[in-house]
């Protein structure tokens, strides 16, 4: 295991208490999904929190965790982190981890921040999520994408029958 893999294994943890959501389960009227997508809610780990705290501190907001260089922190705020796998991209995973500021007293409450990922990070995170899914759900990421693809095909067929496509 490399240092990057080790660090990412500590940073990335799918919250299996939250629902795993297929892309077609979401209401997206502006940009309907036409490829299989599986969305995961990630646990708020120190590494992910530190990334977003640093972005927010550069903008003058308080971090949610005590950080070097911060005199105060946002003790009511927290972050929600999300990432998706899909069958559209060759790497099968988003290029970013989405983060939403929740319950903050700062003006950026409910703002979205993006943690951009390199190709190596994306591939490693996909493997980590795949391992976690196999252990906790008994299915691989490809199994979950196949289920999403099947539901999407059924939805498209239904829309065709109803005349909405």
Which tags fit this structure?
165 residues; single chain; 38% helix; 5 strands; five-stranded antiparallel β-sheet; alpha+beta
Structure description:
The chain has 165 residues and is of the alpha+beta class. It has one domain (3-162). It has helices spanning 3-11, 46-58, 119-136, 141-162; strands spanning 21-22, 37-42, 78-86, 96-102, 112-116. The longest helix is centred in the C-terminal third of the chain and has 22 residues, at 141-162. 25% of the residues are buried. The mean pLDDT is 88.
Mean pLDDT: 88
* Amino- and carboxy-terminal Cα gap: 48 Å
Task: Supply the helix-strand structural class.
Answer: alpha+beta
- Could you spell the SSE succession in H and E letters? HEEHEEEHH
**Count of runs of 4 or more consecutive helical residues:** 4
The percent range for helix content is 25-40%
* Sheet with most strands: strand arrangement: 1-2-3-4-5
- Poorly predicted runs: none
Total E-strand runs:
5
Q: Calculate Rg over CA atoms.
A: 18 Å
Describe the main β-sheet briefly: 5 strands, antiparallel
Question: Gist?
Answer:
By secondary structure, the chain is an alpha+beta fold.
SSE order and pairing:
Layout: H1 3-11, E1 21-22, E2 37-42, H2 46-58, E3 78-86, E4 96-102, E5 112-116, H3 119-136, H4 141-162
Antiparallel strand pairs: 1-2, 2-3, 3-4, 4-5
């Amino acid at each position: 295991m490399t240092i990057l893999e080790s660090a990412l294994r500590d940073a990335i943890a799918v919250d299996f208490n939250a629902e795993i959501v297929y892309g077609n389960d979401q209401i997206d009227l502006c940009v309907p999904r036409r490829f299989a997508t599986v969305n995961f809610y990630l646990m708020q780990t120190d590494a992910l929190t530190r990334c977003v705290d640093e972005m927010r501190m550069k903008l003058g907001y308080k971090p949610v965790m005590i950080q070097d260089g911060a005199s105060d922190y946002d003790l009511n705020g927290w972050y929600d982190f999300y990432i998706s796998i899909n069958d559209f991209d060759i790497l099968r995973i988003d290029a970013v981890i989405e983060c939403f500021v929740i319950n903050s007293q700062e003006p950026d409450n409910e703002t979205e921040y993006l943690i951009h990922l390199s190709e190596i990070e994306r591939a490693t995170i996909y493997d980590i999520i795949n391992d976690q899914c196999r252990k906790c759900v008994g299915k691989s990421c490809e199994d979950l994408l196949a289920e999403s693809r099947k539901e999407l095909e059924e939805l498209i067929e239904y829309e065709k029958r109803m005349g909405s496509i």
